[in-house]
Amino acid sequence: MNVDLFDFTLPPERIALRPAAPRDSARMLVVRGDTLADRIVSDLPGELRAGDLLVFNDTRVIPAQLEGMRGAARVGATLHKREGPRRWRAFVRNAKRVRDGDTIDFGAGVSAVASDRGADGSIALDFAGDEPVELLLERAGRMPLPPYIAAKRPTDARDADDYQTMFARRAGAVAAPTAALHFTPALLDALAMAGVGHVTLTLHVGAGTFLPVKADDTDDHVMHAEWGRIDRATADRLNATRAAGGRVISVGTTSLRLIESAADADGIVHPFEGDTAIFITPGYRFRGIDGLVTNFHLPRSTLFMLVSALMGLDRMQAAYAHAIEHGYRFYSYGDASLLLP
Fold first, then answer.
1. pLDDT at residue 268 is higher than 90
2. Which CATH superfamily is domain 65-141 in?
3. Spans of all domains in the chain
4. Mean pLDDT on 200-225
5. What pTM, to 2 d.p., does this model score?
6. Of the CATH numbers 3.50.50.60, 3.40.1780.10, 3.40.50.300, 1.10.10.10, which one belongs to the domain with range 3-61+161-340?
7. Does residue 200 surpass a pLDDT of 80?
8. Of the four listed, 8, 50, 54, 255, which is most buried by Cβ atoms within 10 Å?
C-alpha cells in the first residue's frame, strides 16, 4: 500500500510533553465499530465486559541514551537491541566519526568498543569491564524519551517515573509500552470488580519503533526485530478467555504484536520466546486479539498502519480527525483510545 494513505496533519501543540496526572485521568476515545465516544481512562471498566482479559507488557525501560567521546569527536548512542551479555546494537549520532575497533568513552567509567556496522546504519557496542551492563547504564545513561519529546525539552528526574508503567518488571526496553502508562492500582481494582482480568507478557521495545517509514510502499519497509516471551500459563489464559466467550484486549501495540506472532491460523496462542518483526498493515487477519487500548500514533508510522488494519483506514482517519478537533493529546505521554472492531 502507498504510505501516503497513512498521512495526516497534526498540529504541534497536540504533542503531549507530560503525562496526565493522575494517570487514569487521561482522555480516552472509544472507537466501537463506526461510533465514537469521548471518555476518560477511568471509565474503562464500564466500556468492557465481565470475562474480558487485558494483556499488559511488563518490560522495563532502561537508561539507554548515552553521550560520549571517540577521541575528540562527540557521539551519541541509543541502544535498541541486546545481542549478547555485553553487546548491544545502537543507533549512533555522528556515526561517520566511528570506525570498527574504536573505543567510545561514555564517562563514569563506562566505555564500549564499536564494530559490525549494519545495513540500517546501526553499530554494535561491546561494553568493557566485568560489571553488568545494567549497572553501567544506571551510571552513564539517561531515559530515552521519544525524539518528538526530547526535541522540545530535556529529560529530567520526573521522567524516570513517568516513563515506566506500573507493570515494569523485566529490564530491556528502550521505549515504554505507553498505553499502559495510563493504568493505576485503583483502576485495576475497578476492572477486577467489573469482572475484567489481566495478564502480562514481555516484549522489549526497541528504538526502531520511532523510525519513520521511508519507503513509498509498505511492502518495501523492513521492521526491526524485538525480543519477546509468552509463557505457557499466559498462553493458556488467553486461549481459555476466548473459549469462554471473553475478549482478549491488548493494552498497547507491543502486546498485540507479540500475541499475533504467537497465534496460529486457528487463533490459538502458543508459548513464544524469541524475536519478532511482524509488520501489520490493512488486509491482515487478526488471530489472537479482539480489541486494543493504545495511544495516538505518528502519521505514516507502522503503528498507525496497525490500528488501521484493526479498524479500517477510513475509520481511523476519521477517529484521528475527531481527536485533533476535540483537543486530544498525542503520542507517548498523550491520551488513549479503545479500539473495538
1. yes
2. QueA-like (2.40.10.240)
3. 3-61+161-340, 65-141
4. 86
5. 0.94
6. 3.40.1780.10
7. yes
8. 255
